[in-house]
Predict the 3D structure of the following.
Amino acid sequence: MDTVGGRLRIIRKELKLTQEALAQRLGIGKSALSMIETGRAALSERNKNILIQDLNVNPEWIEDGKGNMFLAPVDLSRLMRRGDGSAAAEIVPLYSLKGTPGLAPLFAGDSGYQPVDYIHIPDLPQCDGAIYVVGDGMYPLLKSGDIVIYKQLKNTDDIFWGDIYLISVEIDGEEYITVKYIHKSDNEGSVKLVSQNPLHADKEIEISRIRALALVEASIRMNTIR
């Protein structure tokens, strides 16, 4: 079939997977997978990356049907749910923001962003990506060079007060990216960014200045052995 969704259906049939099984692997619902296969919804970059990394799908084939369907044989026993019923490892793309336009274009699906690597973590809730922490505002909870794994938020109304967020804020026309607790503010239309590090003062910002926002679902501590 001459569509991405049609080729996704061919992949599923070739691997002898039900819609439930493939949807589980992609971290989406069966109805969402059905919509992708029938062309009523687009295949996300995240799910395309899972097809490439987990199922060895040829990225050129899924995009335009060129070349072989698979780059290597697929070991389905490793991919699907384990015998104890727990989920297989979640695959999270790891991004570097150095020398790039910033967090907002990444969240918008800018095609210029490519993961620098992939993180495989068992039993992790569905996430959108991971990036390195810069700065010491959340020290000692997080230090520069650690990795945070995030789930994007589309609306600031969905903020859980007191949780840790990856946030992009506009300051004097420039993008400022940080990891902070977000607390309610006494000022209407604003939020309070709170650090773990006592040397960093709280900062009030207007909600309208938030360019991108994601809930931090997990973190990875990077220890250096000297």
User: Anything to note?
Assistant: The mean pLDDT is 84. The beta strands are 90-95, 117-121, 129-132, 147-152, 164-171, 174-184, 190-194, 203-206, 210-220.
